[in-house]
Amino acid sequence: MQNNLIVSPTALTFAIILVAVALAINFKEHIGLEKDVLVGVIRAVIQLTVVGYVLTYIIKVDRVWLTLLMVAIIMLNAAWNARGRANGIPHAFVISLAAIATATILTLLLLVGAHAIAFVPSQVVPITGMIASNVMVATGLCYRSLNTSFHDQRQAVLERLALGADLKQASIVIVRTAIRTGMAPTVDSAKTVGLVSLPGMMSGLIFAGVDPTKAIMYQIMVTFMLLGATSLGSVIACYAAYPQFYNHDLQLR
Amino acid sequence: MTPIFELKQVGYKVDDQQILQQIDLTIQPGEFVTLAGPSGSGKSTLLRVLATLLTPTSGELWYNGQAQASYDKITYRREVSYCFQQPSLFGETVRDNLAFPFDIRKQAFDDTKATEALESVDLTASMLTKAITSLSGGEKQRVALIRNLLFPPKVLLLDEITTGLDGTTKAIVHRLINTMNQRGITVISVTHDEGEIAAASRLLQVVAGRLEVSADAK
Which DSSP state fits B148? Predict the structure, then answer.
């Protein structure tokens, strides 16, 4: 089983050819992402190497506090990244952290409580990463949708306010659209899972030699988990973010 | 009688740009006030300040004997209703728009009331199911106007609502506004329309952010 998993440094070096392909396309088509591709590659190598060693250590020592610390670091990082997509929405870091932490912790508690996973670092840390990253993407999409809609539908929002609507009544159409946008990738991937993509966790288990019929059980769990987490995260992020578009006098900023 | 509006040295500025300055104005309940003046003079800004869609940056603004700032904004806006020059309609049908005032008051939609409102601007009940995308400019403006009037406000603020309308539709809109004014609703109307200016019972000119002339036109 282990033989299937060996990626030698030589093999990785050859994989750099694929990066060269991406760079060549960038140059040829004048896309202008060369710098981002290079930064992305260098960051991926450094971050993954560090995480590899950190995870090895955490799994080896198997301490609850260390596992929880890792969970906290993942959530803080995810919130920081989501904040970057808020494009000026006030308190975006706190809102993102509330959305990501609530969705991640609740989902983790449910999974551990239902004995779907054990509270061991080798299971809790990767699952946390999976949940937090999906909620991070969902939150970022929610922010983008809120920003676009409040800009494009400014007049309609003003009219609702002028008619005596409260902030929720003036914004609910925009909030619903943003929640839908945040959840869309997860819902779409749930619809096509297995048909279009063999997702990361399932692929990893199959790579590791686990019977595909067993691997799907985990994937089904992951699909349910991500649906719940992104819904919860999107709802929290949108409901906490939309009032930030107004001032104390219930006027659009 | 307590004035419905009392403005003392009201000003509004954005960054360094003074849009309204030193506006002193008293309006009595039931008055019909027409605001005229060149484009960009601050008429619409004044109207938006009265509607609490903008907050004055200087001066005092009293509504019904009480500082405007002390009012609950939602209650205030239901009493002082602002109509936009180019209204945007909500949802998909005319009904969605007429249902909105009921929804925000958590009341069930009243078909009879909606039909009466439509008829007051020469539209019929069959309009309720009509898609907003299929309405003409005049129909849109009339639907938007009755959306403001389904729960009659104390003050109606009109921001050039007849601009671009044909003569017949203008007459229908004027008829409804006059009826509302006769029922005691205070009307403050911004306009460029020469006919409306000529017919004004109290005409105020806004020039470069100031109230230049105050005269009783009729």
Answer: H
Q: How far apart are CA B52 and CA B77, in angstroms?
A: 7
Choose one of A27, A61, A95: the last residue of a domain: A61
**A-chain residues near B74 (CB < 8 A):** 164-166, 250
> What distance in Å separates the CA atoms of residue A240 and residue A91, rounded to the nearest whole number?
9
Compute the distance between CA of residue A171 and CA of residue B134 in angstroms, rounded to an integer: 25
pLDDT for A178-234, tens place per residue?
Answer: 999 999 999 998 888 877 777 777 888 888 888 988 888 888 888 899 999 999 999
Domain-located, residue A252? no
DSSP A179-193: HHHHHHHHHHHHHHB
Residues of B whose CB is below 8 A from A164? 74-75, 77-78, 81, 101, 104
Same domain (yes/no): A145, A20: no
Probe site for chain A from B47, B80, B86, B100 (most A CB atoms < 10 A): B100
**Smallest Cα–Cα separation from B12: which of A251, A150, A162, A89?**
A251
Residue-range domains of chain B with CATH: 5-215 (3.40.50.300)
Cβ <8 Å between A165 and B104: yes
Those residues of chain A that have pLDDT short of 70 are 1-6
